[in-house]
Design brief:
alpha/beta; Gyrase A, domain 2; 20% strand
């Protein structure tokens, strides 16, 4: 199978104005299995051979995951960020789709477990777990009021096992450079508010790793600034430039610390999802007319409405049984959106095949995916409705991501 170009992948996966995940081949979910395979381990499904067939004798893989830096963002910043043009000349950029939902909590649980959202059950940034009567943010595992959930453990947020013990058992030493430590790997934490701290942590990882090794580096800064300023903003461009300045430094560090063995270092850049700019004034408030659906929602045992499930581009509505049909009719009449009933989601494999019981229990009675706006509840501060750049839905700019690969030697020549 040949690597697709972006037009071919877009055409194949298009469903009207929406883009479906390519779980069967060219999908973000297959990156962890591909990394493992290149290093001689087996942790799950990999990308087709054409994604990495140019790389032999690899003893170290380094993945830079730039949160929210989809193919649209790569293309938009290419002329302003010399490193992206340098990377394209040195290697290749393979288009992939994200998983659905195209958002961090679901995608990162996929990345660290090689399982799909339908399997691990993280349906979005917010999760309602009826088995424990909890609604919470999957990342950073907090309730909306900032308290820690008491009836579910963090280890049970995702119904999946980490890939890292398997990599260690296969002899692959794994290091992570992230704002949050992972006990399954050798952690190197840094302050996400100060990108200069990333460089020191990455240097420590590069110096300490013994090959065969896998270094994973997570950079969330572009996503964070885009939410507030949008991708078409000076703030976003400045953050993207600084992010890739740090990636450039990291590549130089790899060259300085690489050993004399015969193995190659494979450098990868990818993203969990892309971004689209919404118009905050046009985003949809489900707690305001003509919707006013708060009273239609299921409640926790203490009477609290289940408002937080999914995200503003992937809304899961857990409704009173007698209100499912009326709310469905209202939303389909008023919104430029896909409104999917639970059985339609399961039949379509939108979140992936083989749904687990955990996923089925957490899946909303209705799932709302607006074409290009956010749909959420108007908190006192309007919350997600005031965000500019968003993700989580099936817009092509959310769903299409890069899997850019090059050998270290080709990057530093």
């Amino acid at each position: 199978m040949q690597r697709p170009d972006i037009s071919a992948l877009r055409e194949r996966q298009s469903d009207g104005d929406y883009l479906l995940p390519a779980y069967e081949d060219w999908c973000f979910s297959r990156i962890p299995g591909t990394v493992a395979d290149v290093l001689g381990a087996d942790v799950g499904s990999r990308l087709p051979e054409a994604a990495t067939d140019a790389y032999d004798d690899v003893s170290r893989v380094v993945v830079f995951l730039v949160d929210g830096f989809g193919l649209a963002q790569w293309d938009g910043e290419r002329e302003r960020v010399p490193f992206l043009r340098r990377f394209e000349r040195a290697g290749r950029v393979t288009p992939l789709t994200s998983v659905y939902p195209s958002e961090t909590a679901a995608a990162m649980n996929t990345f660290h477990s090689a399982s799909l959202p339908s399997e691990h059950g993280v349906v979005g940034w917010y999760v309602y777990d009826p088995d424990t009567d909890e609604q919470f943010e999957a990342l950073p595992f907090l309730r909306k009021d900032g308290s820690t959930p008491e009836r579910i453990d963090f280890e049970d947020v995702a119904d999946a096992e980490s890939i890292y013990p398997e990599l260690v058992a296969a002899g692959v030493e794994t290091h992570q450079v992230t704002p949050f430590p992972n006990d399954s790997t050798v952690p190197h934490t840094y302050d996400p508010e100060d990108l200069s701290t990333f460089s020191e942590s990455f240097t420590d990882a590069a110096r300490e790793a013994s090959d065969p090794s896998y270094i994973f580096a997570y950079l969330p800064q572009t996503d964070a600034v885009a939410h507030h300023a949008g991708v078409d903003s000076d703030e976003y461009r400045e953050t993207a430039a600084e992010t890739f300045d740090r990636v450039t430094e990291a590549v130089e560090t790899l060259a300085e610390t690489s050993g004399d063995d015969d193995g190659q270092t494979l450098v990868c850049i990818t993203a969990d999802h892309g971004l689209i700019d919404t118009v905050p004034e046009e985003n949809v408030d489900l707690s305001a007319p003509p919707f006013d659906i708060i009273s239609d929602l299921q409640t926790l045992t203490d009477g609290t409405p289940v408002r937080y499930s999914g995200s503003a581009r992937n809304v899961h509505l857990h409704l009173r049984p007698d209100r499912i049909d009326p709310v469905y009719d209202l939303l389909t009449a008023e919104l430029d959106a896909r409104v999917l009933r639970k059985h339609e989601v399961l039949e379509s494999d939108l979140f992936g095949p083989n749904p687990s019981e955990t996923f089925e229990h957490r899946l909303g009675d209705l799932v709302v995916v607006h074409r290009d706006s956010s749909v959420w509840y108007g908190d006192e501060d309007r919350g997600k409705l005031d965000f500019v750049a968003m993700h989580g839905g099936m817009h092509p700019d959310e769903m299409l991501i890069p899997f850019a690969t090059a050998t270290l030697d080709s990057l530093v020549e």
